[in-house]
Please model this.
Amino acid sequence: MERVLPSEEIKSRIAALAIGLASNCDAPEQAVDELMRSKLPDAQTLPFVGFLTPDGKWVAGFSGYKDTKAFAAILAEVEKSPLLDATPAV
Model:
């Protein structure tokens, strides 16, 4: 990921979409662990990545390395999600 996240294409898009949360994969917070296990049940390779709405609804995610092209495709999926349409409360 150290070559993908600094990519200007990815950096600007992810900055507009997300904030980061780092969790210790050996002892994650219970809520994070439950969410990731339920949405990525077969995940075995770091990083584990999940995109959620501000109120915690799952939008998309993946596990394992993604090159710039694959990461951009996932961001496109997230950007098009109707779950991210802002409501007055958001």
User: Anything to note?
Assistant: The longest strand covers residues 58-63.
